[in-house]
């Protein structure tokens, strides 16, 4: 593993508690002091996770069927044919482990200190969140020997399934620590830019991560007994997140939300990226090719009613270009580089929060768990709540309030009426367990579109939904036209271990086939 140095923690962090925006600046500076208060490091780490989350979203958008090439650009190379190389996602690996080192510092500085129990628990929950993301992308990764800095520069790769099981233990311990804490120092909006110090929300977030882990392994035969035991032990009284889990340390135009900065506009007002368009496959769930969804489509895509430019990945023949000055996922008004309106949908504005987990995803996880009998309750109610939560998030503005003039209940009802014969929208019409699961996963895939796209890619690999027709047109074929994948779905099964591992951890580095080497929960 690349050598990571905890000593990035710099004097700027001292001002964190007086100015939220200051802790958006995180640098690596070996000349600064290595002893920093954990409550100053924790918010920087959480904000760092928000940034890494945006990178995971971009990776998932490319391989999960959400994003295609725009016309006028060449050189996409292996993004077209999926002939991946180790350098493709090196930054994702490096930044994720750098971020995990931040949490390790908080944990080390607070371990055994009852007054710092809340910070320790929050850091451990975030470690579990991040390691699940790494496993889902890379499979076996450094875990038990990771995050030791100079003490171990070449950590072994642990079995991904074992890591998953240990993450459950870590989450349980964090929740128990919160409950058992005596006279703990409270977190607040400065030290906790996600839940503002609400430890009940932290516990629900941990419980929802547990649910996601258990759902993902529920189809792995070797882990059936473990999953059954853990589902039985899941804290149903505590429940799961009841709102979108979002990070917002005080994003502003000059220090914008990372999603906005990646796929919307830079702080100068320059369009961040003009080489990408929505796929026909994704757009078809809004534009009528598969489903009709005026409500979400109109806030998700530019010029939805007048012709959103869309493409199939790999198509360079008369591929459309972007609408000048507009990201294809921005539904607001661009007047000039200094006058870009806030909007609804995916790209709301530079000050929007960064989503780590949508309430919609949590509801669809519960829907699947209830459908399969893992937890009690009405899967139909959870499914409908997931759709409503998706509408609610997309209808919220940068202040996280549903915009005036938007009526979630009315538009969800119109969505159901407009797709009256489709079980993908009206799940009561599904006649088999497979159709019901297809509806749940398809709606989850729609909900995370360009927000947490990696979760759509993960669930597609796990379940095969939404349905794809490898030889079909772009609205029905999720894969690139130029795919060389040997999988039936013509997608890659994973990404490769990065070049940093080749250089710094060569003894443990593994050569991977991106089509046949599967993440342990992938049955395909």
From TrEMBL:
**Domain of life assignment:** Bacteria
State if Lipoprotein is listed as a keyword: yes
Which PROSITE patterns does UniProt cross-reference here? PROKAR_LIPOPROTEIN
> Is the keyword Cytoplasm assigned to this protein?
no
Q: Which InterPro entries match?
A: SusD-like (IPR024302), SusD-like_2 (IPR041662), TPR-like_helical_dom_sf (IPR011990)
Q: Which UniProt keywords apply?
A: Lipoprotein
Protein name as annotated: SusD/RagB family nutrient-binding outer membrane lipoprotein
Annotated organism of origin: Dyadobacter fanqingshengii
């Amino acid at each position: 593993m690349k050598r990571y140095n905890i000593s990035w923690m710099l004097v700027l962090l001292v001002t964190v508690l007086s100015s939220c925006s200051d802790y958006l600046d995180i640098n690596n500076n070996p000349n600064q002091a290595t002893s920093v208060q954990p409550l100053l490091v924790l918010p920087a780490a959480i904000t760092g996770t928000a940034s890494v989350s945006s990178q995971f979203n971009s990776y998932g958008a490319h391989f999960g069927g959400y994003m295609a090439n725009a016309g006028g650009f060449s050189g996409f190379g292996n993004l077209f044919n999926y002939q991946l190389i180790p350098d493709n996602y090196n930054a994702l690996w490096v930044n994720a482990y750098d971020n995990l080192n931040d949490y390790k510092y908080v944990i080390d500085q607070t371990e055994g200190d009852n007054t710092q129990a809340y910070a320790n628990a929050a850091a451990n929950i975030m470690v579990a969140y991040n390691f699940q993301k790494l496993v889902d992308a890379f499979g076996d990764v450094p875990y038990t020997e990771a995050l030791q800095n100079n003490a171990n520069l070449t950590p072994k790769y642990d079995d991904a399934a074992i890591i998953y099981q240990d993450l459950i233990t870590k989450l349980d311990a964090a929740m128990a620590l919160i409950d058992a804490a005596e006279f703990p120092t409270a977190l607040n909006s400065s030290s906790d830019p996600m839940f503002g110090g609400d430890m009940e929300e932290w516990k629900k977030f941990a419980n929802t991560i547990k649910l996601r882990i258990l759902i993902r392994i529920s189809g792995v035969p070797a882990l059936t007994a473990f999953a059954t035991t853990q589902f039985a032990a899941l804290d149903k009284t505590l429940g799961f997140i009841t709102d979108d889990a979002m990070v917002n340390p005080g994003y502003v135009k000059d220090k914008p939300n990372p999603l906005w900065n990646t796929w919307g506009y830079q702080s100068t007002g320059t369009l961040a990226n003009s080489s990408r368009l929505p796929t026909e496959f994704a757009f078809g769930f809004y534009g009528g090719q598969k489903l009709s969804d005026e409500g979400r489509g109109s806030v998700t895509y530019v010029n939805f009613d007048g012709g959103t430019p869309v493409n199939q990945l790999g198509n360079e023949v008369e591929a459309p270009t972007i609408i000048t000055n507009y990201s294809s996922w921005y539904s607001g008004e661009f007047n000039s580089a200094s006058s870009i309106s806030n909007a609804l949908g995916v790209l709301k504005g530079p000050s929007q929060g960064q989503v780590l987990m949508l309430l919609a995803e949590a509801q669809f996880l519960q829907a699947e768990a209830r459908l399969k009998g893992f937890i009690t309750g009405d899967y139909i109610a959870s499914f409908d709540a997931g759709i409503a939560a998706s509408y609610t998030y997309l209808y919220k503005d940068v202040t996280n309030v549903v915009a005036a003039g938007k009526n979630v209940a009315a538009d969800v009802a119109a969505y159901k009426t407009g797709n009256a014969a489709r079980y993908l929208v009206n799940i009561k019409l599904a006649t088999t367990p497979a159709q019901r699961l297809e509806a749940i996963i398809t709606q989850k895939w729609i909900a995370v579109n360009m927000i947490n796209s990696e979760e759509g890619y993960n669930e597609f690999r796990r379940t095969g939904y939404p349905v794809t027709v490898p030889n079909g047109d772009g609205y029905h074929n999720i894969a690139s036209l130029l795919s060389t994948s040997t999988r039936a779905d013509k997608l890659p099964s994973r990404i490769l271990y990065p070049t940093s591992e080749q250089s710094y951890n060569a003894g443990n580095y593994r050569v991977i086939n991106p089509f046949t080497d599967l993440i342990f929960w992938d049955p395909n």
